[in-house]
Design brief:
heterodimer, A: 10 strands, 52% helix, B: 187 residues, 68% helix, Anti_sigma_zinc_sf (chain A), Znf_put (chain A), Anti-sigma-W factor RsiW (chain A)
Chain lengths: 208, 187
């Protein structure tokens, strides 16, 4: 080629966008004069354009999922933290449940001993509270973790928690008779009790 | 974009895997494209691209957060591709049975001979010819050409990715261009 050696070098500088104004002018001038170099330059640019024209291909659809499946197991603590962050309502509900059951169970456990309301004329035999024949109990009786046998009369309510009540005849108790066996019934009984107390307080205040 | 990536990387560093999923989403096409142009085979390209991301995750602690993440990621991918190209052997045999099928071999996975609509065929052929010419380039020219003209990276980035002086990158690009000119001028 009769062209100056610099011509091709200038072409590459031009394609790298690093050509100086001066060399650009020289290249331009040379290309106008020399057909070989013009063709050469054209072929270079064509090759680049063709390479760039290869349509951009995208990764397969499940690509990310597959990468994630191949990652080593992540820290459990972080996993749990994210779960809590993503489910605030469930987290709150779970917290509530845990705290609630904690309270309920501790109260329940405190209540596991045999006890009954102190009323005169009650007799106790082997964990059974007996209202003897011919006697009358004025007021309510509550028996925890034991049975009650009513042979006499009770002027009030009878409540048995975790136990059975045996009655000589139904008319002997003037108030309500209630048996509470399970944890939830017991819970309900406690709630009712609290409700009643609140109402009583209100009533008392109104009376005043 | 860089700020977002940085944030995600920090979350990954704290152990949050989902944040890495978002990073994969951002870069999967570029990395896959890079591998495909370097290796010329979709299947292999996906394998290597997958591995590049897994390696990036495993080694995330060695990434300097003040640098460009894409450069680091491309570097991992490019190195994996170059490794693969060097010890290239057929990754599948046509006689081999396809996993999970009953007696189907790889011949059944090849494109059928039914002719495509003509112009579609022509672009496809052209694309394939060009890809074939890229694959024909010697490895050291191929990587710079792919990074420069398909990933459209700057000379500086290419020099960082390949860990070569800019001067060397330039020379390789020039030689690669010359080779491509020779191979593609009759098209």
């Amino acid at each position: 080629m009769k062209c100056p050696n610099e011509a091709i070098e200038y072409m590459h500088e031009y394609l790298d966008e690093e050509i100086s104004e001066e060399n650009k002018e020289l290249l331009k001038k040379h290309l106008q004069e020399c057909e070989d170099c013009r063709n050469y330059f054209h072929e270079l640019k064509k090759a680049i354009a063709l390479v760039q024209s290869t349509s951009h291909i995208a990764a397969p659809a499940d690509f990310t999922a597959r990468v994630m499946a191949n990652l080593p197991e992540e820290n459990k603590k972080v996993k749990a933290k994210r779960w809590f962050r993503n489910h605030p309502f469930l987290t709150a509900a779970a917290m509530f449940f845990v705290l609630m059951s904690g309270t309920v169970l501790s109260t329940w456990n405190q209540d596991q001993q045999f006890s009954f309301s102190k009323q005169p004329s009650l007799v106790v035999e082997n964990g059974t509270v007996i209202v003897p024949k011919g006697k009358t109990v004025e007021g309510d009786i509550v028996v925890r973790n034991g049975d009650i046998k009513v042979e006499g009369r009770v002027k009030g309510n009878v409540t048995v928690i975790n136990g059975k009540q045996y009655m000589a005849s139904a008319g002997n108790v003037t108030g309500e008779i209630e048996e509470v066996d399970q944890l939830f019934e017991w819970l309900w009984y406690n709630i009712k009790g609290t409700g009643k107390e609140v109402l009583d307080i209100n009533e008392n205040e109104e009376k005043k | 974009m860089d700020a977002l990536v940085k944030l995600r990387i920090k979350q990954v560093l704290k152990g949050d895997q989902n944040a890495f999923g978002e990073v994969v989403e951002l870069y999967k096409d570029k990395v896959f494209q890079l591998c495909f142009r370097m290796l010329g085979n979709r299947h292999e390209a996906e394998d290597i691209a997958q591995e590049a991301f897994v390696r990036a995750y495993v080694n995330i602690r060695s990434f300097n957060i003040d640098l460009k993440f894409s450069t680091w990621l491309y570097r991992i991918a490019t190195n994996l591709c170059i490794d693969r190209m060097r010890k290239k052997k057929p990754s599948v045999y046509l006689d081999a049975e396809v996993a999970g099928t009953d007696g189907l071999d790889m011949y059944s996975q090849l494109a059928s001979d039914i002719p495509l609509p003509e112009d579609e065929l022509e672009t496809l052929e052209l694309q394939e010819t060009i890809q074939a010419q890229i694959i024909k380039l010697p490895e050291k020219y191929r990587s710079v050409i792919v990074l420069k003209y398909i990933e459209e990276l700057s000379l500086k980035e290419i020099s960082d990715i390949l860990d070569l002086p800019i001067g060397t990158v330039k020379t390789r690009i020039h030689r690669g261009r010359e080779a491509l000119r020779n191979q593609l001028r009759h098209l």
